[in-house]
Amino acid sequence: VDFLDEDEQFRVFDSQGKLRISLYKTLLFEQVASGIKSGALNLRYSYKYRAFEEYLISRKRWEAEQQTLLTRTGLLTFKNFGTLEAELRKAVQTQFQITNTNVTTKLNLHVTLGADNRLKVQTPPAEKEISETPLDLFPKDHFISLFEVLSTLNKLCQFTEPLEHWQMQYNRAKPPEKTFFAGIIGYGCNLGIGRVSKISRNVNLSELENTVNWYFTPENLLRANDKILEMIEQLQLHSIFQRDQTVTHTSSDGQKFNINVESLNSHYSYKYFGKAQGVSVYSFIDESHRLFYSTVINPAEREAAYVIDGLLHNEVVQSDIHSTDTHGYSEIIFAVTHLLGISFAPRIKDFREQSLYNFENLADLKKQGYPILPSGKINSTLIEQQWDDILRLIATIRMKETSASQLFRRLSSYSRQHPLYRALKEFGRIIKTLFLLKYINDVELRQSIEKQLNKVESSNKFAKAVFYGNNQEFQQETKEEQLIADGCKRLIENAIIGWNYLYLSKMLVDSQTESERKNLLDVIRNGSVIAWQHINLQGEYDFSEEILKNSIEFRLPELLEFQVYKSGV
Fold first, then answer.
1. How many CB atoms lie within 10 A of CB 565?
2. Considering the entire predicted model, what is its pTM?
3. Residue 287 in 3-state DSSP?
4. Separation of alpha carbons 440 and 120, rounded Å
5. Taking burial as the number of CB atoms within 10 A of a residue's CB, which of 96, 121, 167, 548 is the most buried?
6. 273 closest CA partner among 296, 257, 297
7. What is the DSSP string of 247-282?
8. Of 89, 163, 132, which Cα lies nearest the Cα of 364?
9. Could you tell me how far CA 230 lies from the centroid of its own chain?
10. Which residues pair with 357 in a beta bridge?
């Protein structure tokens, strides 16, 4: 009973000194559950609840191959913390000076200081504000069927190729492409496989069920989506939406969906789901509107833990700058993205609540008369003591030996006094401070963040339009099935975006004059390729007499004569 506190140890025995077994079991199981979640107890054969050290590259391997691993993961330049600290110390000092000077001399026109020296940061619209309004260039005289969209894209990029049987030794011929399309529509439009087979022609239910059971996996669908992204990459038109051709700006955001089945991956939230439960789909998009990653998470989890997963997912979209809203960032994310070579640039909802940090004493900065001052000092010693393990953590993530979200979940479940957690957070404060100072000083940076986050918000409306069946509620119980449904939904979205790119590219090729082409490019540049009004997502209605041959017949006189109470009901 030593694990119990003094009061529990007293109450677990009755007045005769006999153990109250039921109470003891309750307290024991409660302590075990709490210990597993916090990391005080570890489960050797679990994926989620092993000791944190077991998720990292083993210490023995790290010590033997450190130089090679640092080189392979691009971390060699960070090996010496003393050198890095000197660079960051100078950068923070310089940025404090630049930002404060521009505020006090009023060179920064969009930042004002209140009577209490509290900052007010405004972000005006850009001179040429890029609208996320869907382009009005697509066909108006007829609708494009979803079957046509998927078929066209598959002919050009073979996205069904990665949809392989999950037993690789299975040598039977793959099902026809139309069966894959039916499965993608059944899951992606949230209609269900059974319903799609019943309302479709030339689709066999048994073959369709076999196809989705054996060929649809989250990993296969990730690769299928990548095929479409690669095709869009080859079209020159996609670069028209990039603010800087040498920099790729991406963003991510979560979207809530109700779920109408019991699922361990769902959670209650009165704000989003009322009295029901739901899940959160966390999606990533680049400047060219390509949806390059998404996952389904429990809405009780912090979105920030999944930012790195999406950024490291593939080789098609390599992010240089990534933006999220307030829920998508933490100081640890600032630390990890910096070491991965990615600039993290979230939108700050309430800037005045953010803390700045510095290497120097506060008194030294006050002497400069700066209105913008840090509220804390960086503990370099703490970071340096854990620097080797920080690099080992980043190398583990970079080599994809363990997902970043799993590492963060396990690390944050430990006591917040865990030395690696504290050191990562402390290092993140340096990077966060640099970003916040630049955020205050650079209105164009703030504008670009707003524009990029507008794209992901626009894509959320698109996702709802595609996932229209069953009241837009997930029908799947397990996380794997939810990921399959989301993967199919994203594939449909990317296929429509890809079709739109092909259509617009054809319009440019068919332009008769250079002036016509230039005007068309201007229209495209100031709109969005996330458009679906010309796509028939919900199939066609058949008004032929033939379809009525199997109608259920109702004989009204007979029904009117039926009396409920006389029937004994």
1. 6
2. 0.89
3. coil
4. 9
5. 96
6. 257
7. --EEEEEEEEEEESS--TT-EE-HHHHTTSEEEEEE
8. 89
9. 20
10. 376
Q: Are strands 119-121 and 111-113 parallel, antiparallel or unpaired?
A: antiparallel
Length of the chain: 569
Structure tokens given for 482: 């939810």
What is the amino acid identity at position 153? Answer: L
Phi, psi of 254 (to 5 degrees): -100, 145
State the angle between helix axes of 443-466 and 479-510 in degrees (0 to 180), rounded to the nearest 10: 110
**What letter would DSSP give residue 95?**
H
Using alpha carbons, list the distances in angstroms from residue 42 to 37, 370, 410: 9, 49, 10
| Separation between Cα atoms, residue 201 and residue 181, nearest integer Å | 13
24: tokens are 């003891």
Q: Are 182 and 203 in contact (CB under 8 A)?
A: yes
214-264 residue pLDDT tens: 999 999 999 999 999 999 999 999 999 998 889 999 999 999 999 999 999
Report how far residue 301's alpha carbon sits from residue 307's, in angstroms, rounded to the nearest whole number: 12
Q: How far apart are CA 498 and CA 227, in angstroms?
A: 11
Lowest mean pLDDT among 35-49, 56-70, 384-398: 35-49
% helix, strand, coil for the chain, step of 5:
55, 10, 40
**Mind giving me the DSSP string for 451-489?**
HHHHHHHHHHHHHHHHS-SGGG-B---SHHHHHHHHHHH
The answer to whether the beta carbons of residues 284 and 453 sit under 8 Å apart is no
